[in-house]
Specification:
Elements (H helix, E strand, L loop, with lengths): L4 H12 L9 H8 L13 E2 L6 E6 L6 E6 L3 E8 L4 E8 H10 L2 H7 L8 H19 L7 H30 L4 H19 L2 H12 L1
Helix pairs in contact: 3-4
Amino acid sequence: MAFRSREMVKKIMKKIGGDENLAPGVKEQLKKCAPDSKVVMGRAHRGLYAGRHIQFGNRVSEDGGNKTKRNWKPNVQEKRLFSYILDRHIRVKVTTHAIRCIDKAGGIDEYLLKTPYHKMDTEMGLFWKAKIEKMYEKLGEMEVVFFTPEDEDRLEEQFREIKLAERAARRDARRKMYGWSGKKDGADAEGAQEETSGSEGGGPHADIHEQMLANA
């Protein structure tokens, strides 16, 4: 469960092949970016805990003051957070304190960008922070283009057609996966067509009605 910054630096040094592969001054900067927290839970590496980790203490009885060792675990929730740069939801385990920090920052992207590296004490947080920073850097290098209202309408129509095509493809994939066949729908369609033709051409009730009118 112990997770220390120097151990993380050693792991990184081992992966890149030693200090000789680094430029002068890079190792010192890396130590500054490494998390400075003492202990981090093992499961915290797979989520955003915002500094909230397991705590240890004693349970003291009211009568005799007897102490029993116990621990306090953080309130962890599994949430779907929307990322604007990724344009999709991210399913991640976060603490309630991290949720408040994300809401205060204005979103998951802003929280990861504003939080410095030495305070991002989990491997997952470091991974998403580096990834989103790189994507925002590429986004800043892109050229901004303005469209006319006609072009925007045409693009919106194209996106709508793409979504409909994707929906149809997913529906066909589900049908193939679950072995669904269109016989039932075909039979229902034929039955509806027969009912429509019967109502238009006249059924037995229509013939009886016509005979009663003729006798009258």
